[in-house]
Design brief:
The complex is a heterodimer of chains A (634) and B (191).
Chain A lengths: L2 E4 L12 H10 L13 E4 H6 L2 H5 L4 H9 L4 H8 L3 H10 L2 E4 L7 H7 L5 E5 L19 H9 L6 E5 L5 H10 L5 E5 L2 E4 H10 L5 E5 L2 E3 L18 E3 L9 H9 L6 E3 L6 H10 L5 E3 L2 E2 L5 H13 L5 E3 L3 E2 L1 H5 L2 H4 L4 E3 L8 H8 L7 E5 L3 H11 L5 E5 L15 H10 L5 E6 L4 H10 L5 E6 L14 H10 L5 E3 L6 H10 L5 E5 L5 H10 L5 E5 L5 H5 L10 E5 L5 H10 L3 E6 L20 E6 L12 E3 L1
Parallel strand pairs in A: 3-4, 4-5, 5-6, 6-8, 7-9, 8-10, 10-11, 11-12, 12-14, 13-15, 14-16, 16-17, 17-18, 18-19, 19-20, 20-21, 21-22, 22-23, 23-24
Antiparallel strand pairs in A: 1-2, 24-26, 25-26, 25-27
Chain B lengths: L8 H9 L29 H8 L22 H15 L4 E6 L6 E4 L6 H12 L5 E3 L3 E3 L3 E7 L4 E3 L5 H7 E8 L11
Classes of the chains: A alpha/beta (634), B alpha+beta (191).
């Protein structure tokens, strides 16, 4: 059972109120109960509610009142918990559920979703497995959104919001979406592909109440900049527009007119093709912007352009978040100085050409920064500056600038930068750090400095690299992290690692939900430690590690508690996978082959053949029927 | 200036294969397709085996193009592609296409990546073949000349040069043909 945060009007948050009285207060205090009340929040465990039989008392209230109370509960997990309390709660909950999150689009079918939640307004779907981001999954693998949109349309669901990640979206899907839901307000596409700007044109033209169009890192075929022209003049409700990932030209006048007639626009992220003078004009007519993504400015602006830009920026006093900068001349960056102390989110991670010094000069003034995404060109010294300047930092991502390891790179980051950050930024809870070397001592220090990590992702660029000082494995370092960070939910490990690190993870990482393993471990024991120890594990992804059938088959029921398991270039065999598929019919066990030819060309008997890529996931709807020929579902 | 090397087919095939990151290109990082079976030799801790493993990653001494491991480092394709586009632009890996002109005895080859826009390309072609291409209009095509630049795209269709955004053109153009005379009318050109 989960926890819920109820915002209950209390004068004193430190008062330990009995859960029962609180819950009763929740029910009886009337209409203000469910409105956010920022001055205080108190936690009520659902278990407490059950124990007090509150739910039975609550059943005397009309359904609408109960629905109203449920409405205040936002978290998906808590909604799921509520629906398990009793039959009547299940019924009420499903009819008033507005938002549904589906972490794996093949775990359930659209029809069943709609059957259970007919009043759905917001749907989040994820398609391809995470490692698809790194070219490990063939393009045609699956994750098509069309059947979902089709089913929702036919059932006349009042869809208002659709959020997709790693799915295949076609122009036809977008067209259907735009025509089927009169109240459609928000489309968020992350790492999707398969569509063109023609699909965007349909959305622009037909969604009369569109508020949000957010395209993050998608592969979109850019036909023309004319899709922006397709927003009718009557469209004035936009709050968020992000087309940074479009690679082609943009119709600047259409964009400017659109922005000018969107007074509620808070977030605008343009693509590379928006030059500086256009940006200046855009900012001038949208000084209310909170979130801005700029284009590509490799040339230094002349004095006049710079002055105009500066003037426009100064007016944007609400700006809190800045990104884009696929190239940025240093002078351009300085134009943003007037607002840098207001920034809470800064993403300079695409600015490959800019020298670390300029980055540092800018960031040191961003005293309120909470999230920073940068390139390793900032260097250890730069991170030391960040550590001393950005005391509010909660999330840091340092990406590699030299992806092919061509230069003997002195401008990368090492354990020194990481330790500095951990020492200076005590509020840090999420980190993604690409570096060329690490030591156990550093990791132990980091763990001691920042026991509050919930996400810790370390990627040492060279696989199997040991502690560069002691030449030992990094088991102890990661062990220290999992032991100290009791709330750790996501972990990615790298470097030289034996089975021992997995022993530590199994022992200590009690809240761990997602684990990514690459080039690590010695024997099946490693994987077993994790499967046996991490009770909350939902996603496990492993590549190039010597785990085989023994580990895979040891506890088949475990996979029912997880969303998915990915194993590539490991030691599991076809025979092992077949056995698993037999023993666990509620799993889809997919074998992804090198290429189409392999299919089932390999001998049926040759079950000793190692499986190239294995992806398995729990599902209530059995085998999917849209798999390409390179995928075999056992 | 136009580059017209006498390049053999193999070189050019390579050149086009390494094209990355532009819209319309299907495959991403081609060089990553060379897979290294690092995982299999993962028994470790002995210095010799480490060296063996290291040789597939970074080497101490500078060496010719290292083989890449698929999907490593774990950076999103989107991000990789956005850097790669820039690298290509600066390193000039080149994208050579054949150019034929009606009536000319032999073909030429040009590198599309040296141009940033249509105007440059046109001037270069005009210079190369000693002709003049007229003025481009979105609806009517090229006016004022007997010559019309066309190209064959990835789908095998013959298109008028200038209709699509430059980057899209570069990524989808397989060859160029400068048409002349009566054939030209078919493309809806006013003369």
């Amino acid at each position: 059972m989960g926890w819920a945060f109820y915002n209950v009007p209390c004068s004193d948050t430190n008062t330990s109120l009995h859960p029962f009285s609180l819950a009763k207060g929740l029910v009886t205090s009337g209409r203000n109960t469910c409105t956010p009340y920022h001055s205080s929040t108190v936690k009520i465990p659902f278990v407490a509610i059950l124990r007090t039989n509150l739910h039975q008392e609550m059943n005397y209230f009309p359904d609408e009142v109960i629905e109203h109370i449920f409405d205040s509960i936002a978290s998906h997990r808590d909604r799921n918990s509520i629906s398990l309390v009793s039959k009547s709660w299940h019924k009420i909950e499903r009819c008033c559920r507005r938002r549904v999150f589906i972490g794996n689009c093949y775990a359930i079918s659209p029809e069943r979703l709609i059957g259970r939640f007919p009043c759905l307004k917001s749907l989040t779907l994820k398609g391809k497995p995470h490692f698809a981001d790194f070219n490990l999954v063939p393009h045609e693998w699956g994750g098509f959104v069309h059947p979902w949109i089709d089913a929702l349309a036919r059932a006349r669901v009042g869809l208002e919001e659709l959020r997709l990640k790693r799915m295949v979206v076609s122009d036809e899907s977008l067209e259907l979406l735009s025509r089927s839901f009169a109240n459609f307000k928000s489309l968020v596409l992350v790492s999707c592909e398969g569509f063109t700007t023609d699909g965007l044109a349909s959305i622009a033209a037909n969604c009369r109440h569109l508020r949000e169009l957010d395209l993050q890192e998608n592969e979109i075929d850019d036909h023309r900049g004319q899709w922006l022209n397709c927003f009718p003049d009557s469209c004035t409700t936009l709050t968020s527009l992000n087309f940074a990932c479009l690679k082609g030209e943009t119709n600047l006048s259409a964009l400017e007119r659109l922005v000018a007639r969107s007074p509620s626009l808070k977030s605008l992220k343009v693509n590379r093709a928006v030059p500086l003078d256009a940006l200046t004009r855009l900012m001038s007519c949208a000084p209310q912007l909170v979130d801005l993504g700029v284009g590509s400015y490799e040339n230094e602006p002349d004095t006049e352009s710079f002055a105009k830009l500066l003037a426009a920026i100064k007016k944007c006093t609400s700006l809190r978040s800045l990104s884009g900068f696929s190239e940025v001349a240093p002078l351009c960056l300085t134009a943003f100085y007037p607002i840098c102390q207001n920034l809470t989110y800064l993403n300079l991670s695409y600015a490959a050409e800019i020298h670390g010094n300029h980055l540092v000069k800018f960031i040191q003034f961003c005293k309120r920064l909470q999230r920073l995404w940068i390139l390793d060109s900032i260097g250890d010294k730069g991170l030391e500056v960040v550590a001393s300047a950005c005391k509010e930092l909660q999330e840091l991502r340092v990406f590699p600038s030299d992806l092919h390891d061509e230069e003997d790179n002195n401008a990368a980051v090492t354990e020194v930068g990481l330790v500095a950050i951990s020492a200076g930024c005590r509020k840090l809870h999420s980190i993604l750090y690409f570096c060329k070397q690490m030591t156990n001592a550093a990791l132990i220090t980091v763990a001691k400095n920042c026991p509050n990590f919930i996400r810790f992702r370390l990627c040492i660029l060279e696989p199997n690299k040991p502690d560069h000082v002691t030449s030992q494995s990094l088991d102890e370092g990661f062990g220290a992290v999992v032991q100290a960070c009791k709330g750790l939910r996501r972990l990615s490990v790298s470097g030289l690692l034996t089975d021992k690190v997995f022993l530590y993870i199994g022992m200590y990482a009690e809240q761990l939900e997602m684990l990514s393993i690459a080039f690590a471990g010695d024997t099946d024991k490693g994987m077993l430690y994790v499967l046996n120890g991490c009770k909350k594990l939902r996603k496990l992804e492993i590549r190039d590690s010597p785990f085989g059938n023994a580990a895979l088959l040891a506890d088949v029921d475990k996979y029912e508690t997880m969303r998915s398991l990915w194993m590539s270039s490991c030691d599991v065999t076809l025979g092992g996978c077949k056995r698993l598929a037999r023993d666990a019919p509620w799993l889809n066990v997919e074998i992804i082959n090198e290429n189409e030819d392999n299919g089932m060309e390999r001998n049926e008997e040759d079950e000793r053949e190692k499986v190239d890529r294995l992806y398995l996931y729990r599902t209530v709807v059995g085998t999917r029927n849209d798999a390409p020929s390179c995928v075999t579902i056992l | 200036m136009e580059k017209v090397g006498v390049c053999d087919d193999f070189v050019n095939l390579k050149a086009t294969e390494l094209r990355l990151g532009l819209p319309g290109t299907e495959d991403g990082c081609e060089e990553e397709k060379e897979k290294i079976t690092c995982g299999k030799s993962n028994k470790r801790a002995l210095p010799e085996t480490e060296k063996e493993i290291e040789s597939t990653g970074k080497t101490e001494t500078a060496s010719p193009p290292k083989a890449q491991i698929i999907g490593w480092p774990p950076v999103r394709s989107y991000r990789k592609n956005s850097f790669q586009t820039k690298k290509n632009e600066s390193e000039g890996q080149g994208m050579y296409v054949k150019v034929s002109m009606d009536g000319a005895p032999y073909l030429r080859k040009i590198d599309l990546t040296v141009y940033k826009q249509y105007l440059e390309l046109m001037k270069s072609l005009e210079n190369m073949f000693k002709f003049s291409v007229g003025e481009y209009f979105e609806r009517e095509g090229y006016k004022g000349s007997d010559f019309v630049p066309t190209y064959e795209d990835k789908d095998g269709d013959w298109m008028l040069v200038g209709d699509v955004p430059w980057e899209m053109f570069v990524s989808s153009c397989k060859r160029l043909r400068i048409m002349k005379g009566s054939e030209v009318k078919g493309l809806g050109c006013g003369v």
